[in-house]
Amino acid sequence: MKFAPLSYNSGMKLPYVPGDDLLNRSRFSVILVNPENQENIGLVARAMKNTGFSCLRVVGKFKLTAEALRTAVHSTDILKKAPFYDSLPKAVSDLNLVFGSTVRLRKAFKVITIDEAVSRIKTYPLDTKIGLVFGNERTGLSDSELRQANFIYFIPQVSRQPSYNLAAAVLITLYTLFRESATNLLSQVPPPISRKEQTDCIELILKKLEKRGFLHETNREHVTDLLYDLFGRLALSERDRRFLTAVFNKGLDKE
Amino acid sequence: MKFAPLSYNSGMKLPYVPGDDLLNRSRFSVILVNPENQENIGLVARAMKNTGFSCLRVVGKFKLTAEALRTAVHSTDILKKAPFYDSLPKAVSDLNLVFGSTVRLRKAFKVITIDEAVSRIKTYPLDTKIGLVFGNERTGLSDSELRQANFIYFIPQVSRQPSYNLAAAVLITLYTLFRESATNLLSQVPPPISRKEQTDCIELILKKLEKRGFLHETNREHVTDLLYDLFGRLALSERDRRFLTAVFNKGLDKE
């Protein structure tokens, strides 16, 4: 079977979301408090790059190692410009609104969900500087560290154990914000052709099937219905139409 | 300042979502095709555990190593029962609906977003067996592998590079399904007390402030408004009421 080459690319956009930034992501800082695992730090940088965040702050006295750089694929710039602080109060002092993440209930603090945290963020002006604080992998944030937060949130999980990995918690948080931040997260699929063109295409196929003896008096109505149902559900695009036309015009004729 | 110990825990539920499973998560299989990085495989198992998925399938000829077990915190049971297949067609043969993930556009395949994929899943019966297929870290799924998928989806990202890490792509996919799967993802916060109780509490505070000379003829109206605004916004819970009552009854009186 041969048919004319088709332009498959027409109308297809790239599956990423440049530019669009309804939440002003540049005002967000991701703050890691005493992270232990260098690979996690690199994965956090990568998750930030994936979702369009760029300011990383680290609380703790240590150096980034090659392990962090290895997992920060295409994101080492974020690591390299990340400032270090010796305490959380210093790391958040210039911010306006601080969110601390927790995986467990706290005795003295009210805990909201990540979705409520996002709703709350959206009620403040777009230049409000926001910190997202994540604790150490094993211990999380201490109560004294939580006092630096305006709000404390958790990410729903199925069971008590295991908790989300540190980089996973950052990723889900940033992805949730990213979803809110961009209007055009829907894929840019080729639009369906006009209904008349769709019908013409289906009728063409019917004619071809009739010519080949597949369609006859006793099954005509039923087969027609089935064909309309099947190709109707595809909501044919121009690409689909050209492909099907080629198949039924040339493919079947040549057999 | 001293006040009677308060029961902070009343009305607070644990921040996890047991049981609730509107999507029947047990029918989903996560299928990794030729994964290279053992740590990723362990992180995938952990992400599955976090979000309530349990069936992992692996295509490829290799053994799980200690690295995979190390990152599969509290999730090694998923790894240990994961079957291995020598080809993707074999790994999906008993499933009904297969979703392949991609980070780039494909010439011949229509690509939908992860949110559209979830919408589509919800249109099929709850016993439809579903496979979620993820390719190798470097190469993704080949076109020939994508032919095994009914639908191909991508996770929105900001720029072409970097793509999501393999474990990150699985996590976002499963978390998105998990969010759809549970009705009670909202935090179970203590309900506000009756509006009368809220007002009584605010009036009590006003009285205390008056007694202390803070409230007087010239500022009465304004301070009253400010106080109603401030404590109104808190939508006081029983815990809040008891705490504030203690602070203003005992705390201030003792000074």
Give an account of the 3D structure.
2 copies of one chain form a homodimer. Chain A contains 10 helices and 7 strands. By secondary structure, chain A is an alpha/beta fold. In chain A, strand 1, helix 1 (38-51) and strand 2 (55-59) form a beta-alpha-beta unit. Chain A starts with 27 loop residues before the first strand and ends with a helix. Mean pLDDT of chain A is 85; it is low at 1-14.
List the helices and strands and how they pair.
Two copies of one chain form a homodimer.
Chain A lengths: L27 E6 L4 H14 L3 E5 L6 H6 L4 H5 L3 E2 L2 H5 L4 E5 L9 E3 H8 L8 E5 L8 H4 L4 E4 L11 H16 L13 H17 L8 H14 L4 H17 L1
Parallel strand pairs in A: 1-2, 1-6, 2-3, 4-6, 4-7, 5-7
Helix pairs in contact in A: 1-7, 8-9, 8-10
Strand order of the largest sheet of chain A: 3-2-1-6-4-7-5
Strand fraction of chain A: 5-15%
Bulk shape of chain A: elongated
The H/E string of chain A reads: EHEHHEHEEHEHEHHHH
Alpha-beta classification of chain A? alpha/beta
Task: Name a few traits of the molecule.
homodimer, 255 residues, alpha/beta, 7-stranded parallel β-sheet, 7 strands, disordered N terminus
Task: Provide a concise account of the structure shown.
2 copies of one chain form a homodimer. With 255 residues, the first copy, chain A, is an alpha/beta fold.
